[in-house]
Amino acid sequence: MDNMELIEQIQRVKHEKRVAILAHYYSRPEIQDICDLLGDSLELSRAAASLTDVDIILFCGVNFMAETASVVSGGKKVLVPDNRAGCSLAESIKAQDLIEWKERNPGGVIVSYVNTTADVKAYTDICCTSSNAVKVVESIEPGKKILFLPDKNLGAYLKLVTGREMEIWHGDCCVHERFDSALLFKMRELHPNADILVHPESRCSGDPSAHKMDRVWFYSTSGMVKHVERSESKEFVILTEREILHQMRKRNPEKTLFDAGERAICGQMKRNTLEKVYQALVNESPQISVDPETAAKAIVPIKRMLDIL
Ligand code: 13P
Ligand code: SF4
């Protein structure tokens, strides 16, 4: 089947089976173009929690996102195009590591980035995404010890922005770890008139000198999309996974966007293809599910996060 036929078939099966296709901004352009909702991690979690008129969610992202959708959607069937789509952050800490870290730090409040497995969320006090992490940390009683996991870069960024003391796990996103301060300074030199938008998972996010630069902002993926829409600037440097530029260009054809080249590709997100979307719909597989006992614990810190506006 060519792409046109695949898209027709996807639409047909999707309606027959009452499926909503949710996709992250790092998805391939052809998936962004057919999904029902495109968003950042927080928007996609909220959407999964509030969908009432569908029986199945097909999640185009990576496995921790589909797991979160399964936990919050109240038992809906959650399918993925490829269940090998992992994430270096989610893989950097296991539940047992967290249990031992907690034992070494009694009384610490566990703040987990949403890029974690449901097993890890089950031992977490509150989750956060890149778009609400500052608010989540600020919601914690002053003086309480914070254990933040698993992203060392987002953790360093939060420490800098909130001024809160925290212990930080040593995980990283293998893509954003490449966006160091040297790259940021080089981008400024190459594009002196551009607004530079940086994802807080990036290595440079915890560097105070990056925060002193003019016209540099730190945003979640949705925050970046909104900034490009609202800004008067004509040029933008985008330091996150580069497929997001497809959406920005679609919405702002008159603006010029630069990405960080091949280093800005998340291979895990690229595992998802239109063909696999179609096969997943037809076969109702692969499915991502979380055992009920873990889900019952994991939903608590996710709900606490969703309650923070
Ligand atoms: P957000 O879309 O929440 O900014 O997250 C980025 C990311 O890396 C997801 O894996
Ligand atoms: Fe994980 Fe990084 Fe890929 Fe996002 S970009 S899914 S954090 S590996």
For the record, the count of structural domains works out to: 3
- Look at the structure and name the CATH superfamily of the largest domain: NadA-like
The helix fraction, in percent, is 40-55%
Separate helix tally: 15
- The percentage of residues in β strands lies in 15-25%
Return the string of H and E elements. Answer: HEHEHEHEHEHEHEHEHEHEHEHEHHH
Poorly predicted runs are: none
Describe the 3D structure.
The chain is an alpha/beta fold and 309 residues long. It folds into three domains: 3-86 and 269-290, NadA-like (Rossmann fold, 3-Layer(aba) Sandwich); 90-173 and 296-307, Rossmann fold, CATH 3.40.50; 176-264, NadA-like (Rossmann fold), CATH 3.40.50.10800. Helices cover 43% and strands 15% of the residues. It is built from 15 helices and twelve strands. The protein has helices at 3-16, 29-34, 41-50, 63-72, 95-104, 118-121, 133-138, 152-162, 181-190, 208-212, 221-230, 244-251, 267-270, 274-283, 292-307, and strands at 19-24, 37-39, 56-60, 77-79, 109-113, 126-128, 146-149, 166-168, 195-198, 216-218, 235-239, 256-258. Helix 1 packs parallel to helix 14 (274-283). The mean pLDDT is 97. The structure holds 1,3-dihydroxyacetonephosphate and iron/sulfur cluster.
Write the layout of secondary structure elements.
Layout: H1 3-16, E1 19-24, H2 29-34, E2 37-39, H3 41-50, E3 56-60, H4 63-72, E4 77-79, H5 95-104, E5 109-113, H6 118-121, E6 126-128, H7 133-138, E7 146-149, H8 152-162, E8 166-168, H9 181-190, E9 195-198, H10 208-212, E10 216-218, H11 221-230, E11 235-239, H12 244-251, E12 256-258, H13 267-270, H14 274-283, H15 292-307
Parallel strand pairs: 1-2, 1-3, 3-4, 5-6, 5-7, 7-8, 9-10, 9-11, 11-12
Helix pairs in contact: 1-14, 3-4, 4-15, 11-12
1,3-dihydroxyacetonephosphate is lined by residues 40-42, 87, 115, 129-131, 173, 201, 220-221.
